[in-house]
Specification:
With about 325 residues, this protein is of the alpha/beta class. About 35% of the residues lie in helices and about 15% in strands. It has helices at about 15-20, 40-50, 60-65, 115-130, 165-170, 195-205, 215-220, 225-235, 240-245, 255-265, 280-290; strands at about 5-10, 30-35, 55-60, 70-80, 90, 105-110, 135-140, 155, 175, 185-190, 210-215. It has a six-stranded mixed β-sheet.
Length: about 325
């Protein structure tokens, strides 16, 4: 039995279950899992304190952290993917006729400006609807995981004591990204948002990456084979889940399961491909969006984001 234990945090999902329940075990180490109430808490703890050896992390949080000199590196393993056309909500009583009407107005942002959902949603506004993001005042409900990050001038925290959901309902901000609000006057800004995402997948291959996996740099340096071993473990762990999706064997599918099944129907392939090459287009796109939106000042190349020894892997 491997003696080394690596403190690890990632969600229990259909495609990670075999690792979490121990039915698939590493050879050179043991996972020491810590369950966190919400996975975003692990992101913050990893960014601010390097508290885990291995951690799930939102991809734009990761890029922001790398730009700030944080000492961990990603594997080209993408645990969560989603479409974000529906992440943009509007107050239907303020007279918006379309996304361009957001220019010159205040728009709420759930949590921080570097949150991946917000980055992809703003990319939809800019690249599908011609919105000038610099003409919008972005109002944040929280702070950033990466404390060193400095946002663009048109990004500000909400005033102390104010609540952005209440401000959206009152029309003080006209729209919001990344929020869930149960109110009849709050609806998606983009009509038929769910289908708009799938239409973009069909038309251009648009399929956003949300979460990756990062490993502390000192471990990668000390154990040159670790990154490759981890990649192969994640790739092997997802195989039963992909077969369940393909054969429609998931008894109570989650919204994520339903999304991955629909992606499989559209593409005819694996809805959770791992590796640089199957994902290069989307990696390049998120790098581009991060640069355009001021998440990073100097965009990365694709290869420098991912650990040595994994660049040629596909799983």
């Amino acid at each position: 039995m491997a003696e080394q234990k690596l403190k690890t945090a990632f969600q229990t999902l259909g495609h990670t279950k075999a690792l979490k329940d121990g039915s698939l075990k590493p050879q050179s180490f043991e996972f020491e899992f810590e369950e966190v109430p919400a996975i975003i808490q692990a992101f913050r703890r990893m960014v601010r304190g390097h508290e885990f050896d291995i951690s799930e992390m939102a991809i734009t949080t990761y890029m922001c952290a790398r730009a700030a000199g944080k000492r961990f590196t990603a594997l080209p393993v993408f645990l969560v993917r989603a479409f974000h056309h529906g992440a943009i909500l509007q107050n239907t009583q303020v007279g918006l006729t379309g996304p361009k009407d957001l220019e010159g107005r205040k728009v709420a942002v759930n949590r921080g400006y570097t949150v991946t959902t917000g980055v992809w949603a703003r990319g939809v506004l800019q690249h599908e609807h011609g919105v000038d993001l610099n003409k919008i005042n972005w109002i944040l409900s929280g702070d950033e995981h990466v404390a060193e990050y400095q946002a663009p001038a048109n990004v500000q925290p909400v005033e102390k004591g104010r609540d952005l959901q209440e401000m959206l309902i009152a029309g003080e901000v006209v729209a919001a990204t990344g929020m869930t609000i149960d109110n009849p006057i709050i609806k998606p800004l983009i009509p038929n948002a769910k289908e708009a995402g799938f239409a973009a997948l069909k038309a251009t291959g648009y399929y956003p990456i949300n979460h990756t996996v990062v490993v502390r740099d000192e471990l990668l340096a000390a154990q040159p084979g670790l990154a490759r071993e981890l990649f192969m473990l994640f790739a092997e762990a997802k195989k039963p889940y992909i077969e369940q999706l393909r054969n429609k064997q998931i008894a109570q599918p989650t919204p994520a399961d339903q999304t991955y099944a629909r992606v499989m129907e559209i593409t005819g392939g694996d809805p959770l491909p791992y590796g640089i090459e199957p994902n290069r287009k989307m990696i390049e796109m998120v790098i581009r969006l991060a640069g355009e939106q001021g998440i990073v000042k100097q965009p990365f190349t694709v290869e420098e984001l991912f650990a040595a020894g994994t660049h040629d892997l596909i799983g």
